[in-house]
Structure formats: structure tokens, C-alpha cells
Design a protein that fits this description.
alpha+beta; 4 helices
Length: 194
């Protein structure tokens, strides 16, 4: 099982200004992402409302994508449901973060050129109330301009970048390091070791 089990996950890209009223393109809800086709992608406006959906439905989590474009300057947002992301976010839900410290692959995050750094990956409570969750995420991330990801407890990972290649790189860094942290825990240590 990989990053997108059972039709979960969603991916989006910010559209250029001249595409208005379309704001971003996002994968449709309920579609197996391993078999995604161009017809499974729809445009939404800056409020997350579908434009010319042709029977498709944007993910219920579209407001989080729109928020990241508006507040973090993202050009692409990738959301996964991997086992390490779901497990570690669940275990760290009370701490509100997973600390990634000392790992060489941290240098894969934009602006980081050393492994001697602590990255605090925020963990937010999972919620079906996307409005309230979006407000919570926005308040928290407003002081974390260099952050490129967050976790929803027991749910999964959001990662973003200025474009699809950068977002993919950030996603791969976080997924790899969450797997490393999972292995550390398997050997009897905390998810937030130093």
C-alpha cells in the first residue's frame, strides 16, 4: 500500500491569473488516483466551488488547498494518506508536531542546506468541519512561512511547493523522514527524538 490507498488523497495546481474565474485545478473526489485521467481533474474558483464539473466533485478538503495557495504562495499542493503519515500524526496529535531533526534528507526542503536543523511538522486535529480546520491551519502557518507541510492527525500529509516538481520533492522528503521516524519508534524511541 502506498501514498493513495482506496481512492484517498488529492492533488492540485494553482492556475494562472488569466484562467479566472478558475483558481486551481484539483483531482476529483472518489477517483482511484493510480488510474487518474485528465477527465478526473476539475477547476475550482478561489472559494473552492467547482467550475464546469461535468458530474465531478472536488474533494471535501479543497478549502485547505485554496488556503495554501492564498497564504503560503504555493503553486502545487499534494495530499497523501501513507501509513507513516497517518500513524505518526495520530501518535503525535497531543504534542501538535512531529520533530524531524538531524536527518540528511532535510536538505531536500527548499532553503535548507544542512542536516543540523530541526523541522517541526505541525499536526492538526482531523475534522470534517473544513471551515474551522482551515482557520486553525491558517492561524498556525501564518508564523511558519518556511514550512512546506503539515499533518492531519490519523489522516495524512499535506506538502506544497512553488510548482509540481518542488511540491513532489517536499512530499518525498517528508514521506521518507516519516518512515524513518516510524522505524525509530519501532525500536522503542519517541516519535519526537532529538
Amino acid at each position: 500500500m502506498g501514498w493513495a490507498p482506496a481512492t484517498s488523497t488529492n492533488y492540485s495546481v494553482r492556475l494562472p491569473e488569466d484562467a479566472a474565474p478558475a483558481y486551481c485545478a484539483i483531482t476529483s473526489s472518489g477517483v482511484d488516483k493510480s488510474a487518474i485521467e485528465v477527465e478526473h481533474i476539475l477547476s475550482v474558483d478561489q472559494h473552492g466551488n467547482a467550475i464546469d464539473a461535468n458530474g465531478l466533485h472536488p474533494s471535501a478538503e479543497t478549502p485547505l488547498h485554496v488556503l495554501l495557495y492564498r497564504t503560503m504562495g504555493a503553486g502545487a499542493v499534494l495530499h497523501t494518506h501513507s501509513l507513516p503519515a497517518a500513524l505518526l500524526s495520530y501518535l503525535a496529535r497531543d504534542e501538535g508536531r512531529v520533530l524531524l531533526s538531524g536527518w540528511e534528507l532535510l536538505k531536500g526542503l527548499s532553503g535548507i542546506d544542512t542536516h543540523e536543523v530541526d523541522i517541526s511538522l505541525p499536526v492538526f486535529p482531523n475534522s470534517q468541519d473544513m471551515q474551522a480546520l482551515s482557520m486553525l491551519v491558517e492561524r498556525s502557518l501564518s508564523s511558519e512561512r518556511s514550512c512546506y507541510g503539515f499533518l492531519l492527525a490519523g489522516h495524512g500529509l499535506y506538502a506544497w511547493g512553488k510548482d509540481i516538481p518542488e511540491a513532489k520533492r517536499h512530499l518525498e522528503v517528508f514521506e521518507y523522514l516519516l518512515q524513518c521516524q516510524r522505524e525509530v519508534m519501532w525500536h522503542g524511541y519517541s516519535a519526537n527524538t532529538r
